[in-house]
Amino acid sequence: MPLGNPKTSTGSANINSPVTTPFSLRTIPRDQHTISRKDISPNALRVLYRLRDAGFGAYLVGGAVRDLLVAGRPKDFDVATSATPEEVKHLFRNCRLIGRRFRLAHVVFGREIIEVATFRANSDDGSGDREMENGMLVRDNVYGSIEDDAVRRDFTCNALYYAIEDFSVRDYVGGFEDVQARLMKLIGDPEQRYQEDPVRMLRAVRLAAKLDFEIEAATAAPIPRLAGLLADSAPARLFEEVLKLFLSGHAVASFEGLERYGLLAVLFPETAAALKSNRSGALRRMLIEGLRNTDTRVANDEPVSPAFLFALLLWPAFCRSMILLQKQGLAPEEAQRRAADRVTLHQLTTIALPRRFSLPMQEIWLLQSRFSSRQRKRVIRTLSHPRFRAAFDFLVLRQTASSEHADDIAFWQLTQQQSVHEFDPSADVSLIDEGGEGDAPRRRRRRRRTSSGGVASGE
Ligand code: ATP
Ligand code: MG
Predict the structure, then answer these.
(1) Ligand 2 centre from 373 Cα, in Å?
(2) Residue 396, Cβ neighbours under 10 Å: how many?
(3) Which pLDDT score, from 0 to 100, does residue 141 have?
(4) Short-list 317, 304, 400, CA closest to 357
(5) Could you confirm whether 154 is annotated as catalytic?
(6) Is 76 a catalytic residue?
(7) Where are the domains of the chain?
(8) Of 188, 218, 185, which is closest to residue 203 (Cα–Cα)?
(9) Which CATH superfamily is domain 235-437 in?
(10) Closest by alpha carbon to 410, among 437, 372, 381?
(11) pLDDT value of position 322
(12) Active-site residue (options: 154, 171, 178, 408)
């Protein structure tokens, strides 16, 4: 699958430079590997068979082969073929061609799309538009052989081909052994491959986290030194990659990997700095707890929200900015609003967080200061806020870092048991301080339902 749009002018001189390491083909016959057709999407099989019957080479490739070999369930099934996109289109009525210069075929089966790519010789990430430099075409995409197609891929485990003609796995880069050894290993010279596309550093960490693989020594070694190159990657692509790192069920492992290889400091500089200076480890506990909750939710098929994730990851930046603004003499409320805006604005230039996520992220932050109020009208307003649930979950998370929120949590836990619509102004929420804003007589509050806080929920 293409990975979003890298910047059109990367300025990198060695994009598409050939990978020099010589490789030879190893064929792993059906009885020596574990990939079974029953684990492959029937639609992908249909595509493979029809291509083969038409006389073309047809292979399952990339993440699907890798995941099947480690007994995982692939997200999607990509096909590589010797047929050109036009030839593919000719074979399938339900096919549309996408991509501007590098054409890909999508064969559409209801909600499932099988991506069919013609073998090609150049090394990029599939977005097809990165080789423009100052408006000039530096290098076009060229179709190639299956060997060319294998070596332009990133990691050896991602360059395995499952052949429909004999159900064997074709390995041109030593990937089969690396999968058995659970190793992420870049094809070719690691430094050069990271310079071609710095996002590969994030992919190394992400896939190692997802698959529980080690990053091979030579592949890991240049990362801390080259981490800074990521800052030049397209902010929208980084956003997509961050979502995959943290919302796919392995957020804690991803976070630890990013930290270990110096990538966190490039992606989230203020978070990394705050973690370093926070000797008590409280901030770290809060972050890890939030990410662990996210992983649990993904494992339970519960929804997870980018807004909550970014509220968590950028919380240290928000706090720091707010403290600075207050020191400059701004009133707390104004300082909060400005800090939220500043952090959001800055984020657009690094990891582009779309507005539909940054707005609820800001609301989660801004609601935090409302939790200490006990005034009836304010309590009602806070309760009925669309981001209340997420903000409250966030407050609970903050408790991992500091016990000072215990009273507020107890209060809001009790209070929200009475939903806003049912809120009876004459009923007593005994903890509510009338504060001059309400004059209802006191009665015993009723208990309705217990809340079941889902930490990454709600936006
Ligand atoms: P997953 O889908 O589990 O996130 P994946 O490896 O399938 O992992 P995709 O982004 O779907 O990731 O990419 C499909 C394949 O395309 C990869 O397996 C790899 O062979 C190739 N690829 C993806 N990104 C790059 C890249 N930046 N450089 C080189 N090859 C890449
Ligand atoms: Mg994939």
Answers:
(1) 48
(2) 20
(3) 66
(4) 304
(5) yes
(6) yes
(7) 26-189, 235-437
(8) 185
(9) cca-adding enzyme, domain 2 (1.10.3090.10)
(10) 372
(11) 93
(12) 154
52 vs 251: CA distance, rounded Å: 40
In angstroms and rounded to an integer, the radius of gyration of the C-alpha atoms of the chain is: 26
Q: Which residues face 31 on adjacent strands?
A: none
- Backbone φ/ψ region at 450: left (φ over 0), alpha (ψ -120 to 50), beta: beta
Q: What is the pTM of this model?
A: 0.84
> pLDDT tens digits for 326-380?
999 999 999 999 999 999 998 888 999 999 999 999 999 999 999 988 888 888 8
pLDDT at 293 over 70: yes
Tokens of 442: 């006191």
Q: What is the pLDDT of residues 103-139, one digit of tens each?
A: 899 999 999 999 999 999 875 544 444 454 544 444 5
Q: Which ligand is nearest to the CA of 203?
A: 1
Q: What HEC string does 147-164 produce? A: HHHHHCCCEHHHCEEEEC
The DSSP call for residue 38 is G
Check if 26-189 and 235-437 are the same fold. Answer: no
Instruction: Find residue 106's DSSP bridge partners.
Output: 96, 115
Please state the CATH superfamily assignment of the domain spanning residues 26-189 in this structure: Beta Polymerase, domain 2 (3.30.460.10)
* Element spanning 107, H or E: strand 104-109
Average pLDDT, whole number, for the chain?
Answer: 85
The residue nearest atom 27 of ligand 1, judged by CA position, is 125
**pLDDT over threshold 50, residue 429:** no
> Where do runs of H (alpha helix) occur along 31-171?
42-53, 63-69, 85-91, 146-151
Rounded to 10 degrees, the C-alpha dihedral 400/401/404/408 comes to -50
CA of 54 to the centre of ligand 1 (A): 27
Q: What is the rounded average pLDDT of the residues 141-149?
A: 89
Place 418 in a pLDDT band, splitting at 50, 70 and 90. Answer: low
- Mean pLDDT value of segment 292-313: 97
Which residue minimizes the CA distance to atom 2 of ligand 1?
63
Residue 30 pLDDT > 70, yes or no? yes
Counting ligands in written order, which one lies closest to the CA of residue 104?
A: 1
- What Å distances lie between residue 268 and 35, 227, 286, 312, CA to CA? 39, 12, 16, 11
To test the pocket of ligand 1, the residue of 123, 141, 156, 158 to mutate (highest count of ligand atoms within 8 Å of its CB) is: 158
Kindly tell me the sign of the dihedral angle through the C-alpha atoms of 127, 130, 136, 140: negative
Q: What is the rounded CA–CA span in Å between residue 131 and residue 15?
A: 8
Cα 442 to Cα 457: distance, rounded to the nearest angstrom: 34
Q: Is the pLDDT of residue 5 over 60?
A: no
The Å distance, Cα 31 to ligand 1 centre, comes to 27
Structure tokens at 260: 């270990």
